[in-house]
Write a structure and sequence with these properties.
Distance between the termini: 31 Å
CATH architecture: 3-Layer(aba) Sandwich
Strand content: 5-15%
Number of helices: 14
Helix content: 40-55%
CATH class: Alpha Beta
Structural class: alpha/beta
Amino acid sequence: MDTSRPSETTDQERRRFLGMVMMGSAAAGATSLLPSQLTAAPASDAIRPFRIDVPEEALIDLRQRLAATRWPERETVVDETQGVQLAAMQEIARYWGTEYDWHKAAAKLNTLPQFVTEIDGLDIHFIHVRSKHENALPLIVTHGWPGSVIEQLKIIDPLTNPTAHSASASDAFHLVLPSLPGFGFSGKPIATGWGPERTARAWVELMKRLGYAQFVAQGGDLGAGVCTAMGRLAPAALLGIHTNLPGTIPPDIAKALAVGDAPPSTLSADEKRAYEELAVLFAKRRAYARMMATRPQTLYGLSDSPVGLAAWVLDHGDGYGQPAAAIMSAVLGRTINGHPAYDLTRDEVLDDSPSIG
C-alpha cells in the first residue's frame, strides 16, 4: 500500500485540532455484523479489500426476533431508576423492526476504503482514509465499548480534509479506524488474551504494515486503554497519544472507593466532589461490567434477544444520566434530563447496534 512519510515537525495547531474534533466523537452501541468468512483468515499479512454484505436473511431474522419479544412487566417506579423503561424499549423495538433501514448504513460504510488483514492470528477490519495533503500526520483512532467505527464516521472528513472545515492543510491526518478484536467486522477471538496490551501491539503492527514510519494514536473508553497501552509500549514510531478517558485515580483512592469508604479528609472540595461521583459509579453503575468481566458466557440473552442487548447497551449503568442521556434523547426523539442529542440521530444509534448478524 502506497504511503508517504509525514513531516517530522508536528505543529501545536494540528494537535489542538485533534483534541477538539476527537472529543466530539459520539458514543452509541457496538456493531457486530461479522461475516462468517472472516472467522478463518488466510495465514498472510496481506491487506485485503473489504465490503459489507449482510445477508437479507439476517435482517429478516432480526425483525422476526424484535416482533417476537416477550416483554416483562412495567417497571414499578415512575422514572428510570430501575433501568430502561418498558415504554421506551417498546417504541425503540417498533421503529427498529418496521421503519429502520440497515442498508443505508451499509451503503455509507461501503463508500469508504475498508480493509481486513490478519494480525497475530486474527482478522482485523479497518477503515483507511488518506488525506490529499502530502504532509498529513498518520493517526489511528480506537473506539470503545459499546462502540464501533460507525461512531467515528463524522470525524473522517474534518481530519482528512481540514481545509474544507475552516482549518489549514497543516491540520491534516491520514486516518486509520480499526475495529477492536471481537467487534464489528473484525474476527472473534477463540481464546482469552486479547486485552489492551495485545491489541496495542496489533495496532503498532497495523500501522507498520500500512507503511507509516511515524504516527499518533487516540482512543476513548476501551479504546483509551488500548491507546494508553500503546504509550506504555512506546514504539519508536509512536509520536504521542491522546485519550478522553484517562485512568488517573490514585491506587489508595481506588481502593477506598472499591470498599465503599468515606472520602479521605485530605481531599480538596473539588476532589471530594469527584470522589462522591465515583462512589456512585462504583456502587450503582458497575454491575454490568462486573458481570461481563467475571461471567460473560452466562449472558446468552444478549446474543439471542435484540431487545435484551439493546436495553443492556443503552443503559449499562448510566440510566438516563451522562453519558447515556444524549443517546436516549436521540432514540426517543426528545431531550432527556437536559441533555439534548445534538446531531446524533436515532438511526445512527441503531446503525451502531450489535444485534444484526
